[in-house]
From TrEMBL:
InterPro entries: Adenokinase (IPR001805), Carboh/pur_kinase_PfkB_CS (IPR002173), PfkB_dom (IPR011611), Ribokinase-like (IPR029056)
Family: Belongs to the carbohydrate kinase PfkB family.
Name of the protein this chain belongs to: Adenosine kinase
One Pfam family of this chain: PfkB
Cofactor: Mg(2+)
Annotated transmembrane regions: none
UniProt cross-references to PROSITE patterns, sorted A to Z: PFKB_KINASES_2 (PS00584)
CDD domains with a match to the protein in the record: adenosine_kinase
Species this protein is from: Riccia sorocarpa
Length: 352
């Protein structure tokens, strides 16, 4: 990470990375099997809330030891990148929150992390929430988007916000945002293409690959980097009609999807839990080992994928190569899964 004494490096990182997404206040708690069954929730999944899930949020808020954390996939990745960089204002984030107490808490929390936040504040809808159900070290996410579902591209185009977008050189968006404002995704994707900047996305969840295929593929056309896990990659491959379950083959095929004119190559990064991370780049597939961790040391896998991306981005924006980016990614994920939800110590102890 850059040192505070190196003013040239610090200045060059100012607002270098922008994320847009669905800001959610995570309501995280440990629950039992009966709770999961009552609300028909499967572990290791991410879904949007249905009517049957709505009573769960109030019940969860009353669980002993519950935590309230600024969350949402993209916001998590941006917060972790900011934490790894340790340069205030190196990262920026946009999304929609409500004009309520939870929204103000989100502003305070993310700003305290050093992120330059530019939220659209909706007058009517409350701030979005995400139930983070933790059981046996595994987790499931049920998002009630509410205000997060109200983001409009006109907010991005307001002068004070577009200034932030223009200043950034790297853009990261999780696929969840395609359910809210695909227009914003394409505006940033085309801007990055036109200005020869770096545009990146995450497959986010199987339902994005399956039910939002058209906007996803349209956005991937502009992607320099695609992130995902083994389940998302397998779902994407099935939807595309690729007759393979081999992650290396899938990553390679994804890297070879049509790419906007003028872009040199696409890098695809697929995580697989404790198994080696698969990377497809320049027609080749490489496998990168994950640092082993005892199951007893795992507190919560919520945010593991987001923190992996955040660690990766923190190195990428500094001009590091793929090996160093993966090291940063593995370090961040290794730390975060030893904490509850997507949280971490005050400062990283990462040696690149």
């Amino acid at each position: 990470m850059p040192t505070q004494g190196d003013t040239s490096d610090v200045a060059s990182l100012d607002m270098i990375l922008l994320g847009t997404g669905n800001p959610l206040l995570d309501i995280a708690a440990v629950v039992d099997e009966e709770f999961l069954e009552r609300y028909d929730v499967k572990l290791n999944n991410a879904i949007l809330a249905e009517e049957k899930h709505l009573p769960m949020y109030k019940e969860l808020a009353d669980v002993p030891g519950v935590q309230f954390i600024a969350g949402g996939a993209t916001q998590n990745a941006i917060r972790v990148a900011q934490w790894m960089l340790q340069v205030p204002g190196a990262t920026s984030y946009m999304g929609c929150i409500g004009k309520d107490e939870f929204g103000q808490e989100m502003i305070r929390a993310c700003s305290a992390d050093g992120v330059n936040v530019h939220y659209l504040e909706d007058e009517e809808k409350p701030t979005g929430t995400c139930a983070v159900l933790v059981s046996g070290g595994e987790r499931s996410l049920i998002a009630n988007l509410s205000a997060a579902n109200c983001y409009k591209s006109k907010h991005l185009l307001e002068p004070e916000n577009w200034f932030v977008a223009e200043k950034a050189k790297f853009y990261y968006i999780a696929g969840f945002f395609l359910t809210v404002s695909p227009e914003t995704v394409i505006i940033l994707a085309k801007h990055a293409h036109e200005k020869k900047k770096t545009f990146m996305m995450n497959l986010a969840a199987p339902f994005i690959c399956e039910f939002f295929t058209k906007p996803l593929v349209e956005a991937l056309f502009y992607c320099d980097y695609i992130f995902g896990n083994e389940t998302e990659a397998a779902t994407f491959a099935r939807v595309q009609g690729w007759e393979t379950e081999d992650l290396g083959e899938i990553a390679l095929k994804m890297s070879q999807l049509p790419l906007a004119e003028g872009k040199k190559e696409r890098v695809v990064v697929i995580t697989h839990g404790g198994e080696p991370t698969v990377v497809a780049q320049a027609g080749k597939v490489t496998h990168h080992p994950v640092k082993p961790i005892a199951k007893s040391d795992i507190v919560d896998t919520n945010g593991a994928g987001d923190s992996f991306v955040g660690g990766f981005l923190s190195q990428l924006v500094q001009g590091k190569g793929i090996d160093d980016c993966i090291k940063g990614a593995n370090y961040a994920a290794h730390v975060v899964i030893q904490h509850s939800s997507c949280t971490y110590p005050t400062k990283p102890n990462f040696v690149d």
